[in-house]
Specification:
CATH superfamily of one domain: Metallo-dependent phosphatases
CATH class of one domain: Alpha Beta
Helix content: 25-40%
Number of helices: 10
Strand order of the largest sheet: 3-2-1-9-10
Distance between the termini: 59 Å
CATH topology of one domain: Purple Acid Phosphatase, chain A, domain 2
Strand content: 15-25%
Structural class: alpha/beta
Shape: globular
CATH architecture of one domain: 4-Layer Sandwich
Order of helices and strands: HEHEHEHHHHEEHHEEEHEE
Number of strands: 10
Radius of gyration: 21 Å
Length: about 260
Amino acid sequence: MFWQPWKLKLKNRISSLFKKKLPIQPFLPADTRVYCIGDIHGCNGLLQELLLEIRRELKNFNGRVVMVYLGDFIDRGPHSKEVIDTLLNNQPHDIETVYLRGNHEQVLLDCLNNPALISTWLNYGGLAALASYKVSVAKIPTKLQDLVQIQQQLKEKLPPSHYHFFINTRLSYSLGSYFFVHAGIYPGRSLTRQQPQDLLWIRDEFIQSTKYHEKIIVHGHTISTQPELLNNRIGIDTGAFCSGKLTCLVLESDQQRIL
C-alpha cells in the first residue's frame, strides 16, 4: 500500500515513541584514561593524597591522561584557598585538565557582583572559604553595608590567578560515551540544550530519574555514602568535608573503577 508522506512520518514517530531505549555502553577512545575527582570542598589534604596516588598509578601508563574535576572546590572544608593553590601549582604538564564549575563557585562569582548574596552564601559554606582567604567576618552581617565590606575584602584578597581559575571553569565536558557535569542534567532534554541552572543545581529530578540519557552522566553535587555506578549516571560526591572520603572515578576503554 502507498503511504502518503505525512502518514509515513506519523507512523515513524509513533514507532520511535514505543521503541525501548537501551543503556549507553561505557566507552573511551583507545589509549585514554580519565581520572574524575568529585567535590573537594576545601579538603586540601585529601586532594593531595589522591593526587599522589594518581601519580603512582601513572608511572606504568603511557597513553593520554585526562583529569576531570567536577566542581565545588571551595566552601565547607577549611582550606578553599589551598585547594586552588594545589590545582594551579601541582598539575603535571603532560596531563590534560578539565575544571568544571560547581554551584559553589558560581555563588562566589555572583557575590563578587552582588554583595546582597553574601548572606545566603555564608549559610551554606561560604564562611569557611572567606576565612581561608583571610576575609574577616566579625559578626553575622545584617546590613548591606556589612555585606559590601565583606565583598570589598574578598576582591582585595582573592588572588587574580584564583579569580581567573573560577571564571574559566566549564559547565560540562564530554568524552567517549561520558558527559561530565557538576550537578546533572534535565532528563529528556538534549545534552546540547541543557540550561546552566540545571547543570549547576539540579538534584531530585535528575537523581530520581531512571531514563537512559544520550551519554552516561558523571556528576557530583548530591552526596552519597558510596559512589553510585548506575547504567544512566555515575555519582561520586561522597561528602569529603564531612566523611573524610574524596572519591576518584577511573575510566579506561569500557572499564570503570574507583580509586
